[in-house]
Amino acid sequence: MPSQTILCVTPNAALDRTMVVPDFAIGSISRIPGAIAVPGGKGLNVLRAVEILGGRALAMGLLGGHTGRMVADMVAEGGYHAQWTRFAGETRTCTIIANAEGVSTVINESGKIEASDWQALADDITTAAAKETIAAVCLCGSLPDGAPDDAPSQLIARLNALDVPVWVDSSGLWLANAIVAKPAAIKINSEELAGAMGRDLPSKQAIIDASRELVRGGIRMVIVSLGAAGALLITEELVAQAAPPVIQPVDPIASGDCLHAGLVTALGDGASPAEALRRGVAAGTVNALYAGGAQFPYSHFQRILAQTRLDILQRL
Question: Of 193, 56, 181, nearest to 202 (Cα)?
Fold first, then answer.
């Protein structure tokens, strides 16, 4: 693998089927020209976006059964590097239905593994991350049913011992457990942050204050997605916000993952945290203009980037 590879972990990989159904309504019959089927799960979305943005990525995760073989074949056919951990069950399938207004309905299977399957994946990730070519590990999304409750913190502790930066994008129990182990960065939305902090965050300042608590607790960087308003970046040194141009979304699914990819790729290229935020917001925005998740052309990303504004709100 080339130097500065970003390891994109999808513990709960899936086959994602996306259908754009302009007249979608519960209880009705719709006919469409076709569907888009892609390897899914947040880490695989990050993987594709990293590669679009000029980075190098390695996919890791659990795959099982016929669907798992399909996902592995599709990743390989796309020209991506991967190192899978196999398990005896079946990889899940997820369905995304987008209507004419760009509003998506998502139906996710939960996935199911044994605790031993998670241990095998954690061992494989630790071995891969020990290589000098790995610049960062992105731990993305949910964990399948059957994973130990402390799975994120145990893995992050092992990676921290290797001095490999860990980026976390998760929610609920998994996010709360990951925070305990102090990853280098977390990328979440305001609702996920509120859940992790155990309180409502009714304003931008409340979001900033909660993020600062996490930074003071040992997490170096907190990125909070604000949807159409862009995203906030909070570190020990600054608070910044990047705001994208107004768009009419086609399919916003995976925009947060593309934000994640834009950030980590830009930092790997030597960009400042604030500039990395701007690139991340541009990547998340352009993603929403294309169906399927992380399927945008780099040329369109550049046009959106030129229209994405960066504001330094505070220097600390």
Answer: 193
